[in-house]
Amino acid sequence: MLRWEEFVTACPELGEQAQERFVRDELVLLGTLRSDGWPRISPCEVDMAEGYLMLGMMWRSPKALDLQRDPRLVVHSVQCDRHAAQPDFKLYGRAAEITDPSLREAFREAIRARIDWAPDEPSFHLFTLDVARAASLAFGGGREQVTTWDPKRGLRTRTKDP
Fold it and tell me: In total, how many domains does the chain have?
């Protein structure tokens, strides 16, 4: 699994586009696993600092508790257009809780720069995403293009014509 900046270096074709999208939208959908095994999907703000993709969450929120119990997750770009004019980006991996004070402060500085507010310590959970694999799905001109990446097989693209 790769830290965010390592993933962007290993696969700039997906990493750079996903980063641009996440920065622009400031929001992703986060998929976690509930304690009963059912999936949970939640909106989550995303910030990047010190080479990490960081997911800040309210203290004791269900999604944070999910990740503390089972770190597997999916991060999905938000799609607000039924015509899917923008590609979807999906990142699969594991969350790691950030407890290092300097990284938590870097997150607080990043969010403060973005929205002129930052949560007080220690009233929030903070996780980073270690990327195991990634995908992009784009529609256009009646075609579907799926691009996937993982460290073993690298970047692959498949186009499906109507």
Answer: 1
Number of neighbours of residue 152 by Cβ within 10 angstroms: 5
Largest separation between any pair of C-alpha atoms in the chain: 52
Q: Token pair 């944070």 is at which residue?
A: 64
Structure tokens at 118: 């930052």
Q: Do 98 and 47 touch, CB atoms closer than 8 A?
A: no
Per-residue pLDDT of the chain (162 residues; tens, 9 = 90+): 899 999 999 999 999 999 999 999 999 999 999 999 999 999 999 999 999 999 999 999 999 999 999 999 999 999 887 777 889 999 999 999 999 999 999 999 999 999 999 999 999 999 999 999 999 999 877 789 999 999 999 999 999 876
Supply the CATH number for residue 83's domain: 2.30.110.10
Residue 104 half-sphere exposure toward CB, CA atoms < 13 A: 15
- Which residues form the domain of 59? 4-160
Cβ(40)–Cβ(63) below 8 Å? yes
